[in-house]
Structures are given as structure tokens and as C-alpha cells.
Amino acid sequence: MSRQRASWVLPASLLMALLLGLVPLPPTLQALRPYWLALVVAYWVIEAPERAGLGFAFCIGLLADITFAGVFGEQALRLVVMAFILQRFRARLRFFPLSQQALAIGGLLLNDRIVTAAIHVAIGVPQLAAAAWLAPVIGMLLWPLVFLLLDALRLGNWRRR
After folding, report:
1. Complete DSSP assignment for 24-50
2. What are phi and psi for residue 96, nearest 5 degrees?
3. Is the pTM above the cut of 0.70?
4. Which of 18, 42, 117, 17 is nearest to 74 (CA)?
5. Among the ranges given (39-48, 76-85, 150-159), the one the predictor scored with the smallest mean pLDDT
6. Which stretches within 6-134 are classed as H helix?
7. What does the domain layout of the chain look like in residue ranges?
8. Which percentage of the chain shows pLDDT scores above 70?
9. Nearest alpha carbon to residue 57 among 128, 103, 115
10. Within 10 A of 43 (CB to CB), how many other CB atoms are there?
11. Cβ neighbours of residue 31 under 8 Å, at least 6 residues apart?
12. 72-76: long-range pairs with CB below 8 Å, 24+
């Protein structure tokens, strides 16, 4: 049974992740915003390595830096570090149950916060709020939903025949 791969899913998922990152939130919830772009890039690096690698992560990171008007190159570096680690452990990670994948993604998101803190210290930018360290937990809890949604869209399982 051949499945028609939907080529629109990759750009649409990235656009949605960028838009979710732009949605205004109250200041108390802003720090808890999951790193949507990291979740989407992680999915594509794990499930479609022929389409998403280090160059992909770098370009998407630069686009995010421009979109969010942050420090130019910060998100590019963060996403490249995450993509590198994912590529290194992809073969094992693909066969983990979703609950274990979520723990691994949570660890990567925590690593992302550490990389962000290091970048902010290096360039003298104010540090993240203490509540921002909870965002990786929210991302970890959202991973199964993000994975299943993108997998269904990518494989065309959402259509009835």
C-alpha cells in the first residue's frame, strides 16, 4: 500500500510553530510558552532526516531570529545544537515508546534552556525568568501530541478513503 506523502506538511508545521511563538500571552504565562519550533524541528530531524538536518535547523533558526526579533543567531545555534544531538541518537530514539521519547525531548529542551542561559551570559543579555525553566516540562508533555499530529499529517492517516 503506497502512501502519498504530503509535501505541504513540513512548511505548514514550521509556519504554525512560528505563529504559535508569536501569539501574545499574559506576562505570567509568557515564560511558560513551550519552544514550539524546537518540537517541530525535532520531529522532522527524527522522522525525515533526508529533509531535515543541521543546515535545515540553522536556516529555520535564522528565520526564527528574524521573526521574533531576538539576538540574531541565537535560535539558529540553539536549534543546531538540538539537531546535532538528535542526529547522533536518532537510530535509538526512533524506536523508543512515545513516553520515553518525551523524556528525551524534555532533556533536549532543558539543554536548550542551558544553551540559552550560556548565550545570554556571554553577550550580557538579561537572564530568563525562573518560570522559564518550567517550559521544557510543558514541551515534554506536549511531545506525544505534536508527534502524533505531525505523523498523521505526514503519512496521510488523517484522510478517510
Report:
1. ---HHHHTT---HHHHHHHHHHHH-TT
2. -75, 150
3. yes
4. 117
5. 150-159
6. 9-22, 27-30, 36-47, 54-68, 74-93, 98-123
7. 9-155
8. 93
9. 115
10. 23
11. 128, 129, 130, 131, 132, 134, 135
12. 74/116, 74/119, 75/37
Residues sharing a CB contact under 8 Å with residue 51, sequence separation 6 or more, in sequence order:
10, 44
CA separation for the pair 131, 110 (Å, rounded): 13
Residue type, 89: F
**Cα angle, residue 147 at apex, residues 62 and 4 outer, rounded to 5°:** 90
**Helices 74-93 and 98-123, interaxial angle, to 10°?**
150
